[in-house]
Amino acid sequence: MNKTLSLLALLVGIVLIGFGALPSMFPYPFSDSPNSGPSNTWELVLMIAYDQWLFSLLIGFGLCVFAVYSIRQRRD
Fold first, then answer.
1. How does pLDDT run across 23-51, given as a tens digit for each residue?
2. How many distinct structural domains can be found in the chain?
3. Does some domain include residue 34?
4. Distances (CA, A) of 44 to 12, 21, 28
5. Domain of 62?
6. Residue of 53, 44, 2 lying closest to 24 (CA atoms)
7. Alpha carbon separation from 33 to 26, 30, 44 (Å, rounded)
8. Is residue 17 part of a domain?
9. Is residue 46 in some structural domain?
10. Would you state the pLDDT for residue 75?
11. Coil, strand, or helix at residue 38?
12. What's this model's pTM, rounded to 2 decimal places?
């Protein structure tokens, strides 16, 4: 059970790091007017990633460190 939890934390951490890194790879979606919203799901994901990038990276790195530490501690 503990190994499963560690692997799940590692997987979620990697996904959050990838989500937090999206703003560095893609430009902010273009909008014509101040009240225009995203035209598709990908633009919505990018807008959310731009707003939450720091939170996603911090939580992702924290989960990865926890998972690696937990797996290494069990191996020794």
1. 999 998 887 777 777 888 999 999 999 99
2. 1
3. no
4. 20, 15, 10
5. 2-26+39-75
6. 53
7. 20, 9, 16
8. yes
9. yes
10. 72
11. coil
12. 0.82
